[in-house]
Write a structure and sequence with these properties.
Length: 323
């Protein structure tokens, strides 16, 4: 794999294909914003640093900085802050920058960046069902708009994109594991689905599809345990088809102070590292649900790009020193 186009980005950035990709990306961002506004959301400013951040990031490492003598984290996701913000306004979203120091092996997936952005949204009193429905309509609108506004660019990139058919197919985690096992991939039960297995599952599909109800051991402390199915979460991932892999993660939130502390203990997290968050939960926050959709991965899928680092002007590939 050669990273020259990234290391010498100043020499490649004016290539016609980048002009097409970034025009399409602009259309994607414009559509997301106008769709969410039409659904009653307001856009807020995302945090970049803070005393704590999202620990549930599939084996990637967090970045710490010295903040006037205190240890701060660079946001791996703004999940904890989304739960704070819905105390102010019930439907919010942000274009949130995230840093995750992914293992070097992540490069081989072609879909991991160490710095990326997600459209992160949260809705007070919402349920998983509401979020799946919202995400399906959002993606449909984004792709319809790209087809209308960027047909020349898609043509130049050789991307044959068709309107999405919604609703998307849904698998539970258990069903996905079973399907994988029939394909010869044996996932250790209770763990995240590994990248290669996820890619294989993705390659089997021609439309995006959902995987819901992950086991509690596979995810962070902030997803709600399903009362009707103890040991499983009220959460979901969306997977793009044709091998593109993970698009969205989200779910309903565990918002009750004692339950969160218990979950942190089970995940070997020290609650004292999350002091403002714990204090906030003690005071009380509304129940909510939400999700995050990676902007570079969405661009990669829509443009039909082999590598996610072609879907961002100034990419940070794990382990590669570049502008
Ligand atoms: N925090 C999740 C992530 O970054 C997204 C969410 O649950 O809203 O994967
Ligand atoms: Mg995820």
């Amino acid at each position: 794999m050669s990273f020259n186009s990234v290391i010498f980005r100043h020499l490649t950035i004016n290539e016609p294909r980048f002009k097409c990709i970034f025009k399409i990306q602009d259309s994607i961002l414009f559509s997301i914003r106008s769709f969410l506004r039409s659904e009653g959301f307001i856009e807020i400013l995302a945090p970049i640093i803070g005393p704590c951040t999202d620990p549930g990031i599939r084996g990637a490492k967090l970045v710490s900085i010295d903040y006037y003598g205190s240890k701060f984290k660079v946001m791996s996701s703004m999940i904890l802050y989304k739960q704070m913000m819905i105390k102010c306004y019930p439907k919010i979203f942000a274009l949130s920058p995230n840093v995750r120091i992914e293992p070097l092996e992540a490069v081989s997936t072609g879909r991991h960046l160490a710095e990326f952005r997600q459209i992160d949204l949260e809705v007070a009193y919402a349920k998983c069902e509401d979020m799946l429905n919202l995400a399906e309509r959002l993606l449909k609108k984004v792709i319809d708009d790209v087809l209308t506004n960027c047909s020349d660019e898609l043509k130049f990139l050789g991307r044959e994109l068709t309107p999405l058919k919604i609703p998307f197919k849904r698998y539970t985690y258990d069903e996905a594991i079973e399907l994988l096992s029939s394909m010869g991939y044996h996932v250790s039960y209770g763990c995240e689905i590994p990248w290669d297995a996820e890619e294989a599952l993705s390659s089997l599909h021609k439309e995006p599809f959902w995987i819901t109800s992950y086991p509690i051991s596979a995810r962070g402390f902030y997803y709600l345990e399903d009362e009707s199915r103890p040991g499983f979460l009220r959460d979901f991932d969306l997977i793009y088809p044709d091998g593109y892999g993970e698009a969205i993660s989200g779910g309903e939130r565990e918002y009750r102070y004692e339950f969160v502390v218990e979950r942190m203990r089970r995940n070997c997290e020290d609650p004292s590292n999350y002091s403002w968050y714990i204090e906030m939960l003690k005071d009380g926050v509304p129940p909510s649900a939400g999700f995050g959709i990676g902007v570079e991965r969405l661009t990669r899928y829509i443009c039909g790009l082999r590598y996610v680092w072609d879907a961002v002007p100034f990419p940070k590939i794990p382990g590669v020193i570049s502008p």
